[in-house]
Amino acid sequence: MPLPIPLGSSVSFDATTPVLLLSDLHFGDGSRTDLFARQDGDLVSLLEHWRDQVQGIVFLGDTMDLPQAWSLRRIRTAHPKIWTALRRLAGECRLVFARGNHDWSVDYDALFPGATCCEVVLFGPAALAWHGHQVDLMMKPSAGNAWLKTRVHATLERLAGCRLVPPLERYDSPANRVALALTTLWAHGELTAARVLERAGRPRRAAALEARVRYLARSFIGDPADIFGASYRQVLGAEVDTVVCGHSHLPGVVRTDRGRYVNTGSWACGSRTYALWEDGAFRVLDLDTGQEIGDADYAGLLEPTGPEDLFRWWHRHHKGLLRFDLTD
Q1: How many CB atoms lie within 10 A of CB 152?
Q2: pLDDT tens per residue across span 266-303
Q3: The CATH number, out of the four listed (2.40.100.10, 3.40.50.720, 3.60.21.10, 3.10.450.50), of the domain defined by the range 10-164+225-294
Q4: For residue 260, which of 31, 78, 159, 288 sits 20 to 30 Å off, Cα-Cα?
Q5: Residues 6+ apart with CB under 8 A from 69
Q6: How many whole angstroms separate alpha carbon 301 and alpha carbon 57?
Q7: Does the predicted TM-score (pTM) go above 0.85?
């Protein structure tokens, strides 16, 4: 699969092999900022339910949350039941861990003998699955200080005791309102600097600043970290007809003119979703309702987005003094 992004180590499943996929479990230290919280029993039950019905179980990145927990020992202490279940599954079925930006350095092969660790999972002739941070402008491996930014962000969330990310419609809290207000001010500065650089004859630097503000705009309007948009622009095409990822925590299956985008969602902040690969197709399901998840949360997200859309969102929803109307 020739892509503008290196694939790295990979694992393959053919079209006839049923596979269970989960991503962004974010096992932490058991504190209030452990995004997985106390769902251990429910996850183990799900794994046990599907163990004999699939021929592979794939964790699509950010299984362990090292920036939050600081060490694997703390994660193991907080989630012993899951640890035991994973060690057992590694000896009973094909268990695969794809790396994410929160567990890039975890040696899953050593932790769970029999498991396989990789960067990319290939399904059938033209479906690619990975964590998704590979197309995240700010967190991709080639971005400067990506690991440091991940760790700093996790530390700020630990101090705030809540998520500090857009969109506000999904993560509304006083602390996140302050964080997004500061982000908007920073974006104003970035865009002003871009205009100055453009006039000074430095178009490449100006374009880089505009790209960062556009990235934030995508997050504010509902495409966290621009993962859907970037996957559509950079990955889907002639060689890849389906891209599967997590990272944005926004589950869905979206058909586009370039192919299909599948997001497995997460088990963070009350969400509990998973995906199945069966008969050459992917489905994403909500554990609590049993319903398939479609493209409802992705409506309009392929429309062109400019840096100014961030400020349009702000002026539309902000009613002063960090009060927001998020009903429309």
Answers
A1: 12
A2: 999 889 999 999 999 999 999 999 999 999 999 999 99
A3: 3.60.21.10
A4: 288
A5: 27, 28, 29, 34, 75, 78
A6: 30
A7: yes
